[in-house]
Amino acid sequence: MTLRDAQIGQTVKVIKLHGTGPVKRRIMDMGITKGQLVQVIRVAPLGDPIEVTVRGYELSIRKADAEMIEVEMAEVA
User: Fold this and answer.
1) How far, in Å, CA of 77 to CA of 70, rounded?
2) What are the residues whose beta carbons fall under 8 Å from the beta carbon of 77, sequence distance 6 or more?
3) Phi and psi dihedrals of 8, rounded to 5?
């Protein structure tokens, strides 16, 4: 499952970042790293961008970048 597949309001845990070079670096610079919890806030009508909360910050992520972020459902305590 990728971040693009996550539903609005869902909290997911990042398992793996795909992609190479500048694309992977851009994702990591946003604070999205392996093991990080990400909550999907909104998705634009056409699916781009996807707005998420990471480490208390709201970010907009391109649909293409979201497809490179492999996630799993997170258990939120």
Assistant:
1) 22
2) none
3) -60, 135
Cα(45)–Cα(48) distance, integer angstroms? 7
Spatial contact of 69 and 32, defined as CB atoms under 8 Å apart: yes
Residue 30 binned pLDDT confidence (cut-offs 50, 70, 90): confident
Alpha-carbon distances of 60 from 57, 75, 76, rounded to whole Å: 10, 23, 22
CB atoms within 10 A of CB 16: 10
What order do you get walking across the sheet with 69-73 strand by strand?
Answer: 57-61, 50-54, 37-43, 11-17, 69-73
pTM, rounded to two decimals: 0.83
Report the alpha-carbon distance of residue 77 to residue 68 in Å, rounded.
27
Check: CB of residue 71 under 8 Å from CB of residue 38.
yes
